[in-house]
Amino acid sequence: MRPSVSWKLFCAGWALASTGFCTSSGLLADLQVDLQDWASAYNQSVAAVATLSNTDKIRLISGQSVPSINFEPYTSDDGSQGLESFFYVTSFPESSAMAQTWDPELIKANFHAVGQEFYGKGYTMINGPTIGPQGRTPWSGRLVETLGQDVYLAGIAFAHATEGIREAGIIPCGKHFLLNEQETNRSEVYWSNNAVTVPLNNTAYSSNADDKTLHEAYLWPFYDGVKAGLGAVMCAMNRVNGTYACETPNLLNNVLKTELAFPGFVTPDTSGQHTALGSANAGMDFGATSFWNPQTLLPALANGSLSQARLNDMAIRNLMPYFQLGLNTKTIPPNPPATAPVDVRANHRALVRKAGSAAITLLKNTNNTLPLHNPPSIGIFGSHARPTLIGPGTTMDDVHTHTTWPGHLIFSGGSGISSPSYQITPYDALLSKALQDGTQLMWAMDGDLSIIPYTAVTGTMGTSAAPTFAGYASAVSTCLVFINAWSGEGHDRSELRNIPQDKMILTVAQNCANTIVVINTVGARLLDAWIDHPNITAVLYSSLLGEQSGNAIIDVLYGAVNPSAKLIHTIARNESDYPVPICMTADCDFTQDNVYLDYKYFDAHNITPRYEFGFGLSYTTFNYSVPPAISYVNDSALAQPIPTGELIPGGKADLWDEVMRITTYITNTGDRDGAEVAQLYVSFPEEADQPVRQLRGFQKVFLRSGEKGLVEFGLRRRDLSFWDVGRQEWVLARGVYRFWVGASSRDLRGWVEYVVA
Ligand SMILES: *[C@@H]1O[C@H](CO)[C@@H](O)[C@H](O)[C@H]1NC(C)=O
Ligand SMILES: *[C@@H]1O[C@H](CO)[C@@H](O)[C@H](O)[C@H]1NC(C)=O
Ligand SMILES: *[C@@H]1O[C@H](CO)[C@@H](O)[C@H](O)[C@H]1NC(C)=O
Ligand SMILES: *[C@@H]1O[C@H](CO)[C@@H](O)[C@H](O)[C@H]1NC(C)=O
Ligand SMILES: *[C@@H]1O[C@H](CO)[C@@H](O)[C@H](O)[C@H]1NC(C)=O
Ligand SMILES: *[C@@H]1O[C@H](CO)[C@@H](O)[C@H](O)[C@H]1NC(C)=O
Ligand SMILES: *[C@@H]1O[C@H](CO)[C@@H](O)[C@H](O)[C@H]1NC(C)=O
Ligand SMILES: *[C@@H]1O[C@H](CO)[C@@H](O)[C@H](O)[C@H]1NC(C)=O
Ligand SMILES: *[C@@H]1O[C@H](CO)[C@@H](O)[C@H](O)[C@H]1NC(C)=O
Ligand SMILES: *[C@@H]1O[C@H](CO)[C@@H](O)[C@H](O)[C@H]1NC(C)=O
């Protein structure tokens, strides 16, 4: 183990109390942190900052070059799904699609490839991965950009995404910190006529969550991100408990920098900074020149309202990822013009196709309708099957009044846009397959077929059908209906179902005994208008899949890929089943829902979902050997309720120790090879005051037909702990823990108990 270095934690007008947290009554204090693989970067940063004048430090923390230490400001862009506005870049799946794979190594590979493209286009930082919104409400417009509605899954995915980016030599900037749960009223909208700037009648909403909710339901994944090496964290636009997130000392100084020992810098989301000193003293480290410049900060230093130590700390934190990633020793490629022929795509298309097919969940498959076996004729329905006007860097914001997109949808809006150099639509992919197989196609991909004169398409040979969805549906053996749902940054959802789409599906189903529905959606999409229709024999459901979307879908439809993705959110039967709608008031109190996000709310209130969190079918079947076994227990670790380890980036080191292991065997009992995502849910002792069951382990295992495989769930101390508000610690409860193994949050196959004495 490396020696601890003394990390100066600057509470800036706050002091470190005996509990290890900043309090409102004192000066700065030191925090002992074992910086692990940041230690050398810390030494280099301290040494470099020691040579700088205060004016240079101010340049450093406000995005300007500092020639004396060869520092060039970071260049950053949004785009966990690829660069936003360039030619010759790859359009990757949205983050929510990556989470839906439940495959950490694939997530890491995907983000690594994204990072390589950023590097190749001259960038040093990605504004991502994105972890908040966490999913308080399914109407939240940006869940498509995030890693699912369960904190454990999101945390594992966040860590792997962070590692992938970091290993590509790019700074991962985790966002948004914190409680940025909706787009509506996320910031003031100002009106300006050059003479005056006045806020319009809305205000940045305040997310008011208690300390337990904050820790257990929202902060959790940031532990994983910081442990995995986040170099930056983006504070959010919204307020928390009435104060802007970027100006809340408890959030930045205490929670992020002390409890999690985050060693990098905090940077604001657009318009997240509101004052010079409020932000600096709350723990923001990188800011705008309009707030942070020699005219504002030098007088503040002189009169003590900003301490010298805090300014040094800000400068050091800005340099930490610079040295850690060796950016000081590299020649970063130049940032080319958007259309310049700098091709950074490599063979990432293969990865995008693989990830896309791994992200598609099979929800329904009556009598093994899928995979398709050489269907004689196929009808293709819905505009989501074909291309429409959209191209590299299209800001989908222009279409924000729409809730669906009249063409194949492969990315979302705002920071969820990508810049495809082409796209494979389902129509394109089906066409090649039909040519190979000799399948007869019919296609009705426009919503309004009444514009086609009936006589123009009525034949006389007995082969023609009425040019309507019903007519075409009744003329083919297999019907494929494609639908999507759109939302994005700045635009929450106004619906979770779409009436014209549902009508199209029903019309086709009433006329076609083999109707298969394919959905690409930004979040939960209700299916109850038609899901029980006997002619709807199969349903595929996924997020937005990037440029290879059509190939990925066809790979699953025809069985080249056996589906293995599981839902990352609950699909309810009705809107009213979800905990809360979008908050329209200035204060958003997280009281009714508190820690009960997604399936935890459905479990707590005994609400039957249509498809539960974790659900997903396969073309094969899996059997679990039950009950599961407890194969390892560290009794001496469990005997100690509170972590006692040294602080490392990611919290106290022993929070990460494996304290128990649960095992089971899974057998592929069907006649196809395939992968199963085995899931572990934990019921806590009463003392912990936790939801009915929570995901605390998963493993995706690939098994050949007939093969039996061992699944092991390692439980870390933190996985069995609750946040004790009084003690301000993660505490292992005393009592009976029950460990459930299953194929979803409701398809539980067996359990085993253990009493922590
Ligand atoms: C950092 O500096 C300290 C004090 O000078 C030294 O003890 C330590 O070995 C250095 N660590 C690294 C990783 O360079
Ligand atoms: C803001 O409110 C005032 C009255 O309270 C009203 O006159 C004005 O039209 C409102 N502005 C907007 C943009 O809604
Ligand atoms: C929030 O946004 C809605 C819709 O734009 C608006 O009607 C409402 O006044 C806003 N509320 C606040 C508190 O700003
Ligand atoms: C917000 O207020 C609640 C209730 O007082 C408190 O538990 C919580 O810690 C506060 N959150 C932050 C980030 O200060
Ligand atoms: C110190 O200087 C800053 C920056 O000029 C100013 O905003 C602040 O009010 C001053 N504080 C005191 C106590 O004089
Ligand atoms: C599925 O197969 C069963 C048994 O062959 C049959 O009774 C049932 O009608 C089939 N269902 C559909 C929707 O085809
Ligand atoms: C199912 O499709 C067939 C046409 O193949 C149709 O006759 C039947 O009415 C449909 N069933 C329902 C419930 O709509
Ligand atoms: C479904 O949800 C909507 C919107 O919350 C509500 O108005 C309606 O009553 C609900 N319907 C049922 C059957 O619960
Ligand atoms: C599945 O597992 C159960 C319990 O482990 C066992 O009783 C059953 O025979 C198995 N079924 C098959 C088809 O292997
Ligand atoms: C069990 O936990 C203790 C205390 O956390 C630790 O020192 C020990 O190394 C662990 N034992 C094993 C076998 O992991």
Structural description of this entry:
The chain is an alpha/beta fold and 757 residues long. Among the domains are: 348-581, 3-Layer(aba) Sandwich (Rossmann fold), CATH 3.40.50; 620-756, Immunoglobulins (Immunoglobulin-like, Sandwich). 25% of the residues lie in helices and 22% in strands. The strands form 10 sheets. The protein has a 6-stranded mixed beta sheet, sandwiched between helices. It has a 5-stranded parallel beta sheet with strand order 5-6-7-11-14. The protein has a 4-stranded mixed beta sheet with strand order 13-12-10-21, with no helix packed on it. A hairpin with a 2-residue loop joins strand 24 and strand 25 (651-652). Helix 4 runs parallel beside helix 5 (151-167), helix 5 runs parallel beside helix 6 (211-228) and helix 12 crosses helix 16 (549-557). The structure holds 2-acetamido-2-deoxy-beta-D-glucopyranose (10 copies). Residues 39-40, 43 line the site of one 2-acetamido-2-deoxy-beta-D-glucopyranose (NAG).
Key phrases:
Rossmann fold; binds 2-acetamido-2-deoxy-beta-D-glucopyranose; 22% strand; alpha/beta; five-stranded parallel β-sheet
* Full CATH superfamily name of the domain at 348-581: Glycoside hydrolase family 3 C-terminal domain
Question: In DSSP terms, counting alpha (H) and pi (I) runs of 4 or more, how many helices?
Answer: 18
Percent helix:
10-25%
Principal-axes geometry comes out as: globular
- Largest beta-sheet details: 6 strands, mixed
What is the CATH first-level class name of the domain at 348-581?
A: Alpha Beta
Distance between the termini: 31 Å
What oligomeric state do the depicted chains represent?
single chain
| Adjacency order of strands in the biggest sheet | 15-20-19-18-16-17
CATH fold-type name of the domain at 348-581:
Rossmann fold
- Rounded to the nearest angstrom, the radius of gyration is 26 Å
Low-confidence parts, pLDDT < 50 over ≥5 residues? 1-28, 451-461
Query: Any idea what the CATH architecture of the domain at 348-581 is?
Result: 3-Layer(aba) Sandwich
